[in-house]
Amino acid sequence: MERLKRVTQPTTLVTGEIPRVDQRNHAFARGMSGDLGPGTAREFRRFITKHPLGAALAGAAGRLASPVEGGIAGTKAPLPEDPTAVSRHIKQLAYFLRADIVGICRLPQYAVYSHDLAGNPVELDHEYAISLVVDQDYDTFRGSTGDDWISGSQSFMAYATSVLLACVMADYIRRLGYPARAHHVFDYQVLIVPLLLLAGIGEICRAGLVLNPFLGTRFKAAVVTTDLPLEPDGPVDFGLQQFCRVCRRCANGCRPGAISDGEQVMINGYEKWPFEADRCSKYRIGNQGGSSCGRCIKVCPWNKPAGRMHDLARGVVKHAPFLAGLLIRMDEALGYGKRDERYKWWLDLEDVDGVLTVPGDRTVASDRR
Predict the structure, then answer these.
(1) Strand 101-106 relative to strand 350-352: parallel, antiparallel, unpaired?
(2) Which terminus of the chain is more solvent-facing, meaning fewer CB atoms within 10 Å of its CB: N or C?
(3) 102 DSSP assignment
(4) pLDDT tens string 104-133
(5) Residue 22 phi, psi (nearest 5)
(6) Region 254-269: what's the mean pLDDT?
């Protein structure tokens, strides 16, 4: 991450005229409320917990979710005066707590929800946001279709870790005498994507997510907002925009057709590829062949581990973007994005009215669609 090219502005055009978002308009919130249909609302209550491992991980994440806010020490700790040194300390703390990547940015108000899920106005004026990223495990993706029975568990494995990271870090900063709030899967007051973009975690990809050059979109993130004096990281440029213009693997692999295979357009102040969040969420919640979905992660050419050849390909994208098409064809020819049964370790089980059953040949059927 330290070797990536930093730029003053994100590679996605951001106009600065971005309206704040009501959390009740988030697609998952709409699914939970019934706006996406009664079937989706019914399935929302079980789409992760219908798999026993997903249920265990979701329960663990809930137990780890200590208060996101709390009392602040009355006296500030004797910290280094240099914000760069403090930032280095906070980043190393994140890695000590088992984050995979961490980045810092200033907190713009457009990245703060206007209202929470209960309809209450959100007031959050912290100066900085610390983004904490947790990998969802490459080898497990190798053994999956991306939308089979392990998908929801992958999400909540990473969510559980990020909940712990954010709550511990926020508590620690408050003990240093500075305000801090944790934002995680159970209690967000901020939008994750713009903060990841500004903190230099990655660039916005065709799937509408922030893509990291070493993890792809194979991660979940939590955030800590604070007034602790920090040194922001800049956005990054590793050539993704040109690559995504050529590559349409996520669009072609998306079961519900939520990802556009067309060109970028201006949406709410961002120049990006259109993404139909309602379609995506309805499929993830209502998926009858598995638990949730991560197909776009599975088929993305950036979903690769560290390695000499993969690192070389990352360099080619940046320095020879005209070879992007060749890299994509090589990725397909080598079988990346396909399921490798040798890496399947989980059991396909479904909780139906409190009884675990084998869901039959649904995963194989899903792979044929």
Answers:
(1) unpaired
(2) C
(3) E
(4) 999 999 999 999 999 999 999 999 999 999
(5) -80, 125
(6) 96
